[in-house]
């Protein structure tokens, strides 16, 4: 029996640490970045100007540890792993940030591509990182995001090897879910994104290709972390890449209905 989102958050709160790909299928997952209030407008503007990698699903009140996406959850304890940033540098990676939370922090919950993995897998497209029990590979690209105030930086992408004959299917399913990054931003040669070695991701784990697989790249919600580094953000709390908040929101809520052509 599959654990519910609430059961998984409880397990994370109790110390379980694991990537969340493939967990609680059918429920949306989100990226987290919490920043001081005096940086919140810059981050909000950055997400508005870069909706492909940064689709915002919720923004918390100043100091709030709650989100409407998972009523009853505490965002300082209920993710499996967090990162703490100071002056754009990674200062800590920890499973609990409740003692580091500040009353001036504003939390942004950004759509995650793990959300569209359930309908993609249900259509018969294999997910190699889930099959191999690893984190999804993520890469910093040569594509610069549109700057916003003090925030700037490159787009980050996640990569999934997809059998060539199923690439169009995976692309069409994910394209119907723009709130969780939508369709791919690139298919094929990683060098066109400035990725020198697809076997050496910047975040996550390398994944093995099967014969006939093609690398498919989607915009990734780790992009704000790359911007935090590039912009020397004085303080931030984020999820660790691949260790997401599992929400109570069904992924079906983010699927665009296809108009009836009749």
Overall description:
The chain is an alpha+beta fold. 20% of the residues lie in helices and 26% in strands. The chain is built from 6 helices and 11 strands. The protein has helices at 5-13, 37-49, 114-122, 128-131, 167-175, 223-230; strands at 27-36, 56-59, 82-86, 89-94, 105-111, 138-144, 154-163, 186-187, 213-219, 235-239, 245-250. The strands form 2 sheets. Strands 1, 2, 3, 4, 5, 10 and 11 form a 7-stranded antiparallel β-sheet that branches. A hairpin with a 2-residue loop joins strand 3 and strand 4 (89-94). Helix 3 (114-122) crosses helix 5. The longest helix has 13 residues, at 37-49. The termini are far apart. One of its GO terms (molecular function) is lyase activity.
Features:
single chain; 262 residues; alpha+beta; 7-stranded antiparallel sheet; 4-stranded antiparallel sheet; 6 helices; 11 strands; 20% helix; globular; lyase activity; lyase
Number of strands: 11
Mass-distribution shape? globular
Radius of gyration: 17 Å
β-sheet strand percentage: 25-35%
Per DSSP, the total helix count is 6
Poorly predicted regions:
none
Distance between the termini: 41 Å
Specify the structural class: alpha+beta
Largest sheet: number of strands, sense, barrel closure: 7 strands, antiparallel
Order of helices and strands: HEHEEEEHHEEHEEHEE
What is the typical, i.e. mean, pLDDT?
95
> Helical residue percent?
10-25%
InterPro entries: D-Glu_cyclase, Putative_hydro-lyase, UPF0317
EC number: 4.2.1.-
Pfam family, one: D-Glu_cyclase
Family: Belongs to the D-glutamate cyclase family.
